[in-house]
Amino acid sequence: MRSNSVHIVSRSAPHARSPKSSLRNGRLDPMKIDLVTPEMPTPVIPPSETFNPSTDSLHASMKPIIMLAQCFSMLPVCGINKPDASYLRFTWRSLKILYTAVVFLGVFTMTVYNVIRMFYTGINSTKMTTFVFYVTSMVTAILFVRLAMQWPCLALTWEKLEREFTSRHRQVSKTTLRTRFKIVTAVVMLLALVEHGASVLSAYMSAIECAEFRGDKDVIGTYFQSQFPQIFSSMSYSLWKGIIVDVINILSTFSWNFVDLFLILISIALADQFRQMNSRLFAIRGKAMPEWWWAEARSDYNHLATLTRRVDSHISGIVLLSFATNLYFICIQLLFSFNPIRGVVRKIYFCFSFGFLLARTAAVSLYAASVHDESLLPAPILYSVSGSSYSNEVSRFLTQVTTDNISLTGMKFFSVTRSLVLTVAGTIVTYELVLVQFNSVQQVDQSNITNACEVR
Q1: Residue ranges of the domains in the chain?
Q2: What's the pTM?
Q3: Quick check: keyword Disulfide bond in the entry (predicted)?
Q4: Farthest CA pair distance, the chain
Q5: pLDDT tier at 300 (50, 70, 90 boundaries)?
Q6: CA of 382: how far to CAs of 256, 278, 280, 300, in Å?
Q7: CA distances from 102 to 99, 136, 139, 249 (A)
């Protein structure tokens, strides 16, 4: 759903936020104390190979994704190309922030023009959808700038945890986290590119029909004016203006898709940490383990729970935005589906766009829910501990697993679990019935449009 259808910064730059100096002074984070554990005997599970932050860390896995995002003005963090997370920093004095501000200003302008158009011509579902799309893009930009301010410390804390766990936990998947990130990103971005291309093709075919109807040979001009009526109904059209507006629309479309992609990747990384810890627990199922071993395992679980809560505190706004906008656009797409659609290309585009939206929403829900699912898996192992091995540490571990709600949330309004998927589905049905009743008058039957240039 979309509208109508280099940094080089000095390391001593003022106001820069770098966790590296805090790391040297031993004052990085309250988690630092928790992450230090006493020397333990050789673990039961063979440890992974020596931890290499330039290849094995979250920072290394997210590096190409963040670089891609920064091409579209997202996550303006400095030091992404460095070998580890200690070089990351955020500063307001960077070209990335300037680029983000320019794009934000462009999206804000599009939103203002859309409001003006609704004020003078009235509100309908199509205009409201365009408005929501650009407002979502603005809110996304703000949330990711806020995340960029916290990302250096978050990435470094995560890297410390990974380094600590490498000595005890083995890699469960043969595919590295970095490879999985690249595969997921390639799939999501490729589908998004196809969806946007189908949207452009559908709109261009409409522009051809409109140009023929008006006897106008400038199909490109017709395309821009029909796609962005909120802009060119208030100002004169020229090609350079059309290109700028279209670029802003493309950037907004990327940010809308990147929100879901980012949540999927973070969920994969968190669930992977729990999965590695769970593999260590499953390997000793039925065996008698000393109390120190259970104390170490409980400490690891507690560190992961603390990390999950910290991550959630930074991205819960993004989670809420993702679910709210996806819910809205699914309802709107369903509403539009009740109208006849002219042309095979338009029908193919609509079906693909709607299917992609549903698949993306389901992927975000299931991947985010996997964090909660993995956090519950130690319970069966703890229940099966024999009486001779049962200790206070096992009891404390079991109590935390069964009572602590470890999951990503939407600003604490809801927790992302598997049951949420059914809740969202029920909500969609309820809202759809309401929309059908209150918006039936506003819907235009496409088959009855006699003017090919009519814009809703």
Answers
A1: 58-158+176-440
A2: 0.84
A3: no
A4: 89
A5: very high
A6: 42, 11, 13, 15
A7: 5, 17, 15, 14
